[in-house]
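Pipeline run #58 for the internal structure catalog. This entry was flagged by the ingest filter as a single-chain record with no existing model, so it goes straight to prediction. Upstream metadata was stripped on purpose; only the residue string is passed forward. Reviewer on rotation: M.T. Logging verbosity set to normal.
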Amino acid sequence: MQLRQPVMMIAMALLVSIMGIPSGFGADVAKIGTVNFQKIFDNSKAGQKVKEEIKEEGQRMEADLKQTGDEIQQIKEMLERDAGVMNKDAREEKKWQYERKVEDVKALKRKYDRQIQELQMRLVNNVRKEVLAIIQEYGKREGYLLIMEDLNTVYSPESLDITDKVIQLYNAEHDKKKKSS
């Protein structure tokens, strides 16, 4: 009888500890989310504003190139039209002017391409920084263990995608900044 009581106590302690193990493991569920930066950029107000700004700058540059191209076309037409009546020196001068203008336009186009790429990189990086700050703040507030960009994710259920929520938060912050300025 004396042996039964300690065995019974050990069995009860073991049973209670075994029953408590599953609840200890299940208490902390890992909350994971994914975001799609391209979708955020395409659908957010700030992203659309950046696209519009880049488009306007590109159109301005294109108009400038078109104007210079028109000048080149005028020189070419004048050279073709008046080549027969011009003396050799005047013809060579116009031909040199034409070739110089063509090279100037090529250089200007390269310069504009570089400027538009730099503008695009700067503005897109600004949007990305703002979005990352929003994602980090949202992740901390909502208790996420991990939020990753879906760019390199092979598969994830739609329920993990928080992109739409991030767009809502970003649009709200963009509106708030717009009102304050």
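catalog note: The radius of gyration is 34 Å.
catalog note: The chain has one domain: 4-180.
status: ready for reviewer M.T.
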